[in-house]
From TrEMBL:
It comes from the Bacteria. Residues 14-40 have a biased composition (Basic and acidic residues). GO terms for biological process: proteolysis. Residues 1-42 are annotated as: Disordered. GO terms for molecular function: peptidase activity. The keyword Hydrolase applies. This is Putative ATP-dependent Lon protease. Keywords: Hydrolase, Protease.
Amino acid sequence: MREKIVPPNQAAESAREKPLSSEEKQLKKPSWDPSEHPDYNELPVAEKNYGYQEDMEQLVKALSVDTYTKDVSELGYSMHIKLPRDLLDELEKISDTERTKGVVAHYYAQSVVPNPPTEYLVVL
């Protein structure tokens, strides 16, 4: 036969009955309240600009295919790109060691060639 389960004489105080201490209140409080900082979203975000970024943007814009290609209906499947003479002269001035340091990536969403690769890497 099984024995009866007898409850203990006095139950310990439950957590609900005890008053919260200041430490427990602090633990339950969120660590950061947005209502205390209403202008948080308005703080200016400083963009980090490096000198080479503007130069690279200008170079990519100068070398973009839209600048140098004619209308697709004129050319059919061939791709004719004519770079300005001053740009070619500047590229000749760069030494061979510096040429291998610069890699320009070109991405073409549309192209006049059938089945084109989506990315072209050109080493200057």
